[in-house]
Amino acid sequence: xxxxxxxxxxxxxxxxxxxxxxGGVPYIQFLGITFDRRGDELTAILPFDDKLIGNPILPxxxxxxxxxFLETTAIIExxxxxxxxxxxxxRIDADATRLPRLPKTIDFTVDYLRSGLxxxxxxxxxxxxxxxxYASVHVEAWQDNRSRLFAQATGHFLxxxxxxxxxxxxxxxxxxxxxxx
Length: 181
Known about the structure:
By secondary structure, this protein is α+β, with helices and mostly antiparallel strands. The chain has a single domain, classed as Hotdog Thioesterase (Thiol Ester Dehydrase, Chain A, Roll), CATH 3.10.129.10. Helix content is 28%, strand content 32%. The chain contains 3 helices and 10 strands, in the order H-H-E-E-E-E-H-E-E-E-E-E-E. The strands form 3 sheets. The protein has a 6-stranded antiparallel beta sheet with strand order 1-2-6-7-8-5. Strand 1 and strand 2 form a beta hairpin. It is globular, with a radius of gyration of 19 Å.
């Protein structure tokens, strides 16, 4: 029986995988979103910045920023859940340079429950269903009080296929007449 890896090594693997996931999406950096990791649980943090305001009269966070924050949280949580077993087993090492592709959004429905105030926002996602091809995720966002949500969303995602598995519905193009067969 293999001895468990030292706790520091496991934490380094987890942190490196999360950093690689988040670092691979420039829009996440533009918005300033970060993730707080506690074990397998992630909390997304959207630090307030004046550029995030959509209505300066209220002032309120822009609805597009809110939607992007929720969708980003859902995608990172879903990817994190997909990677967790490989991270824990040591199949993803501390440099975490080769990670799978991110899931693609099929649809995403946002419920704006109240105005997002000009302050930091937080979000957590829960994977409702995750299969080989499809996943469903629910996200909740709050600011000062976890029980007073300002937005929530549900999204459906197409899971990335493994590199050695070609999608069944894609046909190779027929180059003899310039049309796909």
